[in-house]
Amino acid sequence: MPVFGLAVLALVIVLSVHVCQTGRSMMWLPVIWLLPVLGSLIYVLVEMLPQLFRGEGVVSLEAAREARQRDVTRNRRDDLQWRRRGGQGELSPPRSGEAHRAARMFRPPKDPLREGMIHDKLKRAEEALATHRYDAAVDLFAAARQGFFADSPDIVFGLARAHFGRGDLDAALNLLDELVTGRPAFQPHAVAILKARVLAKQGDVAAAVALLDAILGQTGNLEGRRLEAQYRRAEILWQSGAMDEAVAALTELTRHEQLFRVNDDERQWVRLAGQALQAIS
Questions:
Q1: If 113 and its partner were Cys, which of 43, 87, 118, 143 is the partner (CB 3.0–4.6 Å)?
Q2: What is the dihedral of CA 196, 197, 202, 206, to 10 degrees?
C-alpha cells in the first residue's frame, strides 16, 4: 500500500505539472487532487490520449511560443526575399520541415465544436455571449456539456444564459430549475435573477417581482448582486407599465452610491439606473 500510495502521489504531481505547463484549464487540478485515481484516469482519457492519437505530442507553452516565434521570423525573412525579387515567382520551400510542423501544430481546428479542449469551448462560448452571438453560444455550451461535464453548473448556467439571449425562454427556465433543484448552492442569487427575467419575458410579471422581492428581503449584499436585483426589478416594472414604481426604484438605486461604497461591478447598475431615469423623463 505505501508503494501504491507513492505511485499515485507521483502520478498526481506529474499530471498537475502537465496541466500547468500545457495551458489546460485549472479546473482539472481539484479533480486530480480530490479524486487522485479516478480524476487522473479521466484527465488522461479526456486531455492526453486524444492529443497523442492526433500525433501532436505534448508541447509546453514555452516550447510552443518558441516554435511560433521561429516560424514568424522565418516567414518575415521569406516575405522580405519575395518583395526584393519584385513579387515574381514562388518561394522555395523551407530548408527544414520545422516551420511546417509549427504551422500544423497551431492550425485551427476544422470543427470548433468537436475539436479543442473543454476550456477552449467555454472561452469561445463566453466570448459569443459577450458579443450577443447567442446561436454560437448555445452550440458551444451544448458541445461542452458532455460526459464528465454534463452536470457542470457553470456550463448549465451558461447554456441557460445563451438560451435566454436567443429567446428560448422555456429551455432557459428548464435549465434554471435544474440548477435550483440539483445545485441549489451554485450562485443562487444570479440564478434567481435570471429566472425572474425569464418569467417576466413569459408574461408572469407578478411571479418575477415576487422572486426579486424575496431576494432583496435577504440580508447582505447578495454576493455583490443586490444592486443588479434592484435594477432588474425596476426594469421589469418599467416594461410592464408600472412607471411610478419603476421610477421610485430607479431613484433609490441612483442614491445608493451617495450613501454606500460601491465597486465597479455594482457601479454599472447605478449608471444604468441613471440612464433609465433620463430615458423615462
A1: 143
A2: 40
